[in-house]
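[agent] plan:
  1. take the single chain provided in the ticket
  2. run structure prediction with default settings
  3. attach structure tokens to the ticket
  4. add a short note for the reviewer (M.T.)
[agent] executing step 1
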Amino acid sequence: MPTNTPRTKTFVLPDMSGRYPPNGNPPDGYVITYQASDGYYIARPPIKILSFSSPVSSPYTVTVEDVVLVQTHAGTFTVNLPTGPIPGTTVFVKDFAGVAAVNVINVVAAANIDGTTPYIINTNYGQVRVIYNGVTWSILSK
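[agent] step 2 finished; step 3 output follows
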């Protein structure tokens, strides 16, 4: 009669330390999104669309995943990216007024944006979309 041989299986969980929330339920209003890279769902703050018009308060500091549409402004407008957000955070900044050739938009980060900071939008209707990878910001599109 054959004997059953015990088998050992190892189950590996992905590192969840960068996920929000680490314990418990996400705050009201958070959006559950699918992360294709590891097959898990993550709760994130909702994207907010900010459209700046006169008078403009510069610098603007991004607090969550934002779409920042910079309208009429005089002089340089500065958008500060968040410091140390969760990996996968994306921010989209666009010259909505079409005046960046004369009035540039500086996108500034504590970590580099594709190896440098600030990223300068200096073409009319220019834009940049960046994602945080846990260490630096990477440009997804411009």
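[agent] step 4 note for reviewer: Residues 47-141 form a domain with the Jelly Rolls fold (CATH 2.60.120.640).
[agent] ticket updated
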